[in-house]
Design a protein that fits this description.
alpha/beta, globular, 3 helices, 90 residues
Length: 90
């Protein structure tokens, strides 16, 4: 089974991790247009206010943690359309 998740940040990474728990054999790919694989947007005001000084502390998942779950990441790509039955080539 191939699973493609469009959008990273907290929701995409959570969906990928949940998909991995349900299927150890699936090929899971997360496509994110930005360069943060998983980012806690809700913590951004605390970072801007100085309560969380290091922006990297807002990372929910890192590329390394997703790789450990055998989840592929393609950052810096933007999805413009979804074609059912098409094959993903990056």
């Amino acid at each position: 089974m191939n699973i493609v998740i469009i959008g990273g940040v907290a929701g995409g990474a959570s969906a990928a991790a949940r998909a991995r728990r349900h299927s150890e054999s699936a090929t899971i790919t997360v496509i994110e247009r930005g360069y943060d694989v998983s980012f806690a947007n809700c913590g951004l005001p605390y970072h801007l206010g100085g309560e969380i000084p290091d922006r990297d502390d807002l990372a929910v998942q890192t590329p390394e943690s997703l790789t450990a779950l055998l989840i592929l990441q393609n950052n810096g790509f933007e999805a413009h359309s979804i074609i059912e039955g098409a094959h993903l080539q990056l």
